[in-house]
Design goal:
The structure is a single chain. By secondary structure, the chain is of the alpha+beta class. It has one domain (3-156, 202-230): Aminopeptidase, CATH 3.40.630.30. It contains seven helices and eight strands; from the N terminus they run E-E-H-H-E-H-H-E-E-H-E-H-E-E-H. The chain has helices at 29-39, 49-54, 68-77, 90-97, 138-152, 167-175, 206-223, and strands at residues 3-8, 16-23, 58-65, 109-118, 121-129, 157-163, 179-188, 193-199. The radius of gyration is 17 Å and the shape is globular.
Length: 240
């Protein structure tokens, strides 16, 4: 399955950036590694995303550029589905997002993000966007998608760590009702910077869901997309 959006690039006037979200697959790893090194150049050791794809607790998504023709074809061939099973498993995640290798015309990955599901907690491990694609709504798109995944996988709360100096990221998280709940002293090994620990209230609570609904509506208005583009669309798995 995929989530499709067409985002406007503020720097390009009327030009648009068609893109879609997919579950990360092995073919994505090389580009994800590039983005990871660009976003987190001092992180050591670097993440092993091949291992992460085999980790039953980890769930990663990527944003791919996509031309309008393939986007429209996907929209026609994969109608929206609103129901989802509650089981937290890799098989369920594959059913939800699909694990097909994307078509050849979808080459460039512009961002990625991941969460670990641990009992009733969804911990955001990373959100990263290529530098030249930042400030186009992709980071927020990824965050919305992680929240949707966590909710569908029956997590109760979401948590993350963010650098104390990264006010831009903190503002985005606060916008989505993440609140500071602690400080991890000298958490980042490159410069011993503190990590701000943030957490949500119950993401299934009526207040959180209503706030999320309003933010999604505002996001659609800002980027001039239909609200249906925020839904997760089912696509058939190979051999099914």
């Amino acid at each position: 399955m995929l989530i499709e959006r067409q985002l406007k690039n503020p720097a390009d006037g009327d030009k648009s950036l068609p893109c879609a979200i997919y579950a990360m697959c092995e073919e994505d790893i090389a580009q994800v590694d590039e983005i990871d090194r660009e976003a987190f150049p001092t992180q050591w050791p670097p993440p092993n995303y091949k291992y992460e794809l085999q980790n039953q607790f980890a769930h990663y998504v990527v944003v791919r550029e996509e031309n309008s023709a393939s986007r429209e074809s996907n929209a026609e061939n994969h109608p929206e589905q609103s129901s989802a099973p509650a089981a937290i498993s890799k098989r369920w995640f594959s059913r939800l997002f699909g694990n097909k290798k994307p078509p050849p015309d979808r080459k460039l990955i512009t961002g990625f993000a991941g969460i670990w599901i641990l009992v009733d907690e969804a911990h955001i491990t990373n959100i990263a966007v290529r530098k030249r694609y930042q400030r186009r709504g992709i980071g927020e798109l990824l965050l919305i998608s992680l929240i949707d995944i966590a909710a569908k996988l029956k997590a109760d709360i979401m948590t993350l760590e963010v650098r104390a100096s990264n006010s831009t990221a903190q503002n985005l998280y606060q916008k989505y009702n993440f609140k500071q709940v602690g400080v991890r002293r000298a958490y980042y090994t490159d410069n011993r910077e503190d990590g701000i620990l943030m957490s949500t209230e119950s993401i299934s609570s009526p207040s959180f869901q209503e706030h999320l609904r309003q933010l999604k509506q505002a996001y659609c208005t800002r980027w001039k997309i239909k609200s249906s583009h925020l839904n997760i669309n089912r696509r058939a798995l190979p051999g099914r």
